[in-house]
From TrEMBL:
Residues 54-66 have a biased composition (Acidic residues). Residues 13-34 have a biased composition (Low complexity). It comes from Kineosphaera limosa NBRC 100340. This is 2Fe-2S ferredoxin-type domain-containing protein. GO terms for molecular function: iron-sulfur cluster binding. Residues 93-186 form the 2Fe-2S ferredoxin-type domain. Gene3D superfamilies: 3.10.20.30, 3.10.20.880, Domain of unknown function (DUF4445).
């Protein structure tokens, strides 16, 4: 198939010969397909385009001067009395916003969006696009004051909801005082906290030695430090200045019975009494969406507590590109993003420490595995070069750094081990995953796929290893999907269709819902299941189009009544809350949702197919496929095969690897020798830049269709 060809057999732009958009959209509006293919022609990494906004609705970035003044004068000034209908405060050109249920009162320059006002004040509003008007997740209700209704609001809300004050926060420009009700943001997503990992020899860099020292005498006037070092017979550590400062006091208060704390070759502390059984470390998987922390007991090598939460940077966007863009538009954004990353890490540290009954000063080391952008933002490194060609990192590897650089308050001598990165879009989290899964040790041909907004792919033939990154877009996180949501309570995660069920019978569509509550939306694994099942039973053809109502009534009468429309767009109803509920109030899958998934899976399958060519392999040569990350852990292997997300192989070759990044972070804390292995991977793995491949576009278009 040639570049630009539509695998559905129609016009490459996605419109039919009459000019109608087959997805049911406005025929005068550029389709997502045409925008995506046009973007790919210029830069394959632009493949995450979500669709156009009306020009008059497109949110503008906040004026840096407004934001600077706003931050300098305080994030939470007291609410002042409003003067006049315009709501401008004392002629200052500002308006007052009151957010519920937080009760926060703020003032912002007139014209700032409600989304930006909330983000500046640390009020989390759900979003995956960073307030650019494309994901339609930032739903709020105006309980006092009003705002114009935009065309995107009309597409998002029912007329009743619009009348009740519901709007998209990023499109509400503040012109009058507003009371804003913010729906609760799910802060406990369903995340994988364990994964596939190799066993390691327990030999942490953090060592403790209990010392019973002889007190000084006139005949033994060795210094306190020499006395300590002489008693440590198996090591020759250097001494931190903090130890020299505290030695005299600690030794004498403890009757010269102390525990020496050594990290690698540095004596960082002496503690009163015998504390040899109290040494801990925290392993972090710093994901773009979800962050997981594991508290490790270094004496036993076992986890003492595990916790996860959404990355606090979510208000700045659901993917790395929107967060990088935020730093490019506003000089203060990078600092704010760093603060939010630190707040997330700190919150998780406090949670696991409280659960295990461990004091912060008993944590001596931290391991951090994150993609290149998350790592850069956490360390205060400018991420802008990662977002523009030629996508260059400031550094691939890092020395151990004080944990204070990550905003953590632990032992004063504690340090953080940061995983190195292979490239701008194959970061330390993937290196950690490769380390945990033994990609460099196995002689079999293996494919490693970390599915997400930016999908990282690694392929090994047992001798050579190649890697790449594919811009899958936000569909797997629920972004750009009509009823999409993150994997949290109320999200449909498993779907099974029974084409033999009687017409209208509920058993025709069987749903698995997180939390066993009423369905609220569709998460990534549910999206893949839905499309795979619709393709399996024949409601979707190989091009991704819904069959006609007539065909459905004839071929699949038990499911035909679930085909409906929202506006002019065809949809399949997954859940109807009441028998007479309009389709707009149902949980459904739209034709455009199917297209979004096709774009995502095509980017990924193009990535691994190009890597196969690099190593002269065929899909059948792959002996194991590892699906990694929080999303990959819950993805049905059969559904992934059916839509072409992974090669068509026996289902038993597809393995859910879980949180392998977190497992890798644990390994370097439990065994110092594994750190050298992580650094060695930088030399062993070849990175393939997809945007530099002239055949990417053709391969991408070929991969849009579902396999037969």
């Amino acid at each position: 198939m040639t570049a630009g060809a539509d695998p559905t057999g129609g016009d490459p732009t996605g419109a039919d010969s009459t000019g109608a958009d087959p997805t049911g959209g406005d025929p005068t509006e550029p389709t997502t397909e045409s925008l995506l293919l046009a973007a790919l022609a210029e830069d394959p990494l632009a493949a995450t385009v979500l669709g156009p906004l009306d020009p008059e609705e497109a949110p503008e970035p906040p004026d840096p001067e407004d934001l600077d003044v706003f931050l300098r004068e305080g994030l939470m000034p007291e609410r002042a009395d409003v003067q006049g209908e315009a709501g401008l405060l004392d002629g200052t050109g500002r308006v007052a916003l009151r957010f519920a249920p937080s009760g926060r009162d703020v003032r912002v320059p007139a014209g700032v969006s409600v989304f930006d006002a909330a983000s500046w004040n640390g009020i989390a509003i759900d979003s995956t696009c960073g307030g650019h008007g494309t994901c339609r997740k930032c739903k709020v209700r105006l309980t006092s004051g009003s705002a114009p209704i935009t065309s995107h609001d009309v597409r998002t809300f029912s007329q009743g909801e619009l009348d009740d004050g519901w709007r998209l926060a990023c499109l509400v420009r503040t012109a009058v005082d507003l009371d804003v009700d913010v729906p609760p943001l799910v802060t406990r997503p369903k995340a994988s906290t364990v994964g596939v990992g190799r066993q390691v020899i327990l030999r942490p860099a953090v060592q403790k030695r209990f010392l019973e020292l002889e007190e000084p005498t006139l005949s033994d006037q060795r210094t306190d430090i020499v006395r300590i070092l002489d008693a440590i017979t198996d090591l020759e550590p250097r001494v931190d200045l903090a130890v020299i400062r505290s030695a005299a006091r600690v030794l004498r208060a403890a009757d010269f019975k102390v525990t020496a704390v050594i990290i690698d070759d540095l004596l960082v502390d002496i503690e009163p009494g015998d504390t040899t059984d109290r040494r801990f470390a925290i392993a972090y998987d710093l994901g773009t969406t979800t962050v997981v922390a594991t508290l490790l007991d270094l004496s036993t090598g076992t986890p003492a507590a595990v916790a996860s939460m959404l990355n606090g940077q979510q208000p700045f966007g659901g993917d790395v590109i929107t967060r990088i863009s935020a730093t490019m538009m506003d000089d203060s954004a990078a600092g704010r993003l760093r603060e939010l990353a630190h707040a997330t890490l700190n919150s998780l540290a406090q949670e696991v420490l409280a659960e295990a009954g461990v004091a912060p000063t008993e944590v001596y080391e931290v391991g951090l595995a994150g993609n290149a952008t998350m790592t850069a933002l956490a360390l205060g490194i400018d991420p802008e070069p990662l977002g523009v060609a030629p996508f260059v990192m400031s550094a691939a590897s890092f020395p151990p750094v004080p944990v204070a650089e990550l905003g953590l308050t632990l032992h004063p001598g504690a340090r953080a081990v940061i995983f190195p990165a292979l490239g701008a879009y194959v970061g330390g989290d993937i290196v950690a995953g490769m380390l945990a899964s033994g990609m460099d040790r196995d002689k079999r041909a293996r494919l490693f796929v970390d599915v997400g907004t930016n999908c990282e792919i690694v392929l090994s033939d047992g001798e050579r290893i190649v890697s790449t990154a594919a811009p899958a877009g936000p569909a797997f996180e629920g972004g750009a999907i009509r009823c999409g949501m993150r994997a949290a309570d109320g999200a449909i995660e498993v779907i099974t269709l029974d084409p033999a069920a009687p017409a209208g019978a509920p058993e025709g569509v069987q749903l698995g819902v997180i939390g066993d509550v009423e369905p609220r939306g569709l998460c990534g694994s549910g999206l893949v299941d839905a499309v795979a099942e619709l393709a399996r039973v024949g409601l979707l053809d190989s091009s991704g189009r819904f069959i006609t109502d007539e065909q459905a009534a004839e071929q699949l009468p038990g499911l035909a009544d679930r085909l409906s429309a929202v506006g002019q767009e065809r949809v399949f109803v997954l859940y109807r809350p009441t028998p007479d509920a309009p389709t707009e109030q149902c949980v459904y899958l739209s034709q455009r949702d199917v297209r979004e998934l096709q774009f995502a899976k095509a980017a990924i399958s193009t990535g691994w197919s190009l890597l196969l060519g690099e190593l002269d392999l065929e899909p059948r040569d792959i002996q194991q496929v590892l699906l990694a990350g929080s999303f990959g852990s819950y993805l049905s292997p059969a559904s992934a095969i059916r839509i072409g997300l992974v090669p068509k192989l026996p289902v038993l070759r597809i393995v859910s690897a879980g949180n392998v990044a977190g497992e890798g972070a644990k390994m370097v804390l439990l065994s110092a020798r594994e750190r050298a292995g992580a650094e060695a991977l930088l030399q062993e793995v070849k990175y393939v830049e997809l945007s530099d491949r002239p055949d990417f576009n053709d391969r991408f278009v070929d991969q849009l269709a579902f396999p037969g």
